[in-house]
Amino acid sequence: MDTETSADNERKTSGWRGSREIWLDAAKAAFLENGIDAVKIQPLATQLNLSRTSFYWFFKDRAAILAALLEQWEEKNTGGIVSSCNAYAGTVAEAMLNVTGVFLDDDQFEPRFDFAIRGWAHQSSAIMARVAAADEIRLAAIRSIFERFAFDPGEADVRARTIYLVQIGYISMQVEEALALRMERIPAYVKTFCGHAPTQGEMARFQARHGFTPA
After folding, report:
1. pTM metric for this prediction
2. Whether 102 contacts 81, CB under 8 Å
3. Other beta carbons less than 10 A from residue 152's beta carbon
4. Closest Cα partner for 157 from 144, 169, 170?
5. Nearest in space to 39 (alpha carbons), one of 136, 132, 154, 117
6. CATH 1.10.10 correct for 1-59
7. What does the pLDDT look like over 103-130, one tens digit per residue?
């Protein structure tokens, strides 16, 4: 008897259905690797070694798990940017470092997730609308930094767009950049974004937060 097959069959019939998180993690992995068309119930069930019917304990249908992916993306990526904009900063340069830092930390913002969602948006006007709404929320959050530091509203809007479009450009172009090179460029980016270079102390704290030790 093939013991591996027997164990697999027992697992499928023993009542263990996985969990909502397991199904969602598998859907996300498939989505990031192969796009939205890869998120289908039976292939996910096969991958997880679960029965197809187990899926329906956690999600009504395929549309429900796709909606959950969108919600996860909004909560993490848009939420991460908004939180970074609301973080304490003594100077506008420090605030720029807060925003820049979120794009260096996958725990706060996942570039691959954003890239995949934007690819999906090209196939669906409804998803494109969700992406546009998220972009507006993110831009408003960045713009609020400049307003907090008394920049003119028109200038605040243009500077916010400059920051955000540069970061989205990095994602869309799938730029591969060594952390050391990125750190070297960040002071000049910050000065370009807000007109003020970060102090040595601000950069040192920023680098320490991201586990970077200058050579």
Report:
1. 0.88
2. yes
3. 11
4. 144
5. 117
6. yes
7. 999 999 999 999 999 999 999 999 999 9
pLDDT at 2 over 90: no
> What's the gap between Cα 37 and its chain centre?
20
Only one residue has tokens 């713009």, namely 143
- Over the stretch 72-114, which tens digit does the pLDDT of each residue have? 999 999 999 999 999 999 999 999 999 999 999 999 999 999 9
Q: What is the chain's length?
A: 215
How is residue 170 annotated by DSSP?
H
